[in-house]
Amino acid sequence: MVHRDIKPDNVLLVDDHAIVADLGIAHLEGEDETRLTVTGNLVGTPRYLSPEGRDVSPATDLYSVGVVLFELLTGTLPFGGSSIAELLVQISTMPAPEIVGCDVPRALAAMVDSMQSRSPSDRPRDAGSAAAALAEAASMDAASMDAAAVAAARRGLSGVGSP
Question: In the CATH scheme, what is the homologous superfamily, with its name and number, of domain 8-158?
């Protein structure tokens, strides 16, 4: 299944677990693509769309998760066109910016950067391997983070999916 609309509003945190909500435009492999959407229409939230556009795969959702994590860690989105057309051109032609200049552990930043790779084949192979790599990066760098940074990170995570 490919969700096709991963964004902060669709990620709920319950007891330290992320739950993806709103499966309204999710795509199951082998399902008729036009059943829920009009062919040719934009599907998903533009700021979280992957560069590959309509070629949906699990890598599409991993890119969107990378955008959500980039926003969580930096406080900004990787692309910010002044119109949907400009935004889509940026997403489809420019590499996502790397996470630099903020207090984010390097291993975690590198993992998020890889999730936003322009090429789906350069992203983690599936959600399970992405989750394992993120957990490893976070635990590896947790020892080097001071208590205030850990507390700030937790406060930021608790806001995802909240009104």
Answer: Transferase(Phosphotransferase) domain 1 (1.10.510.10)
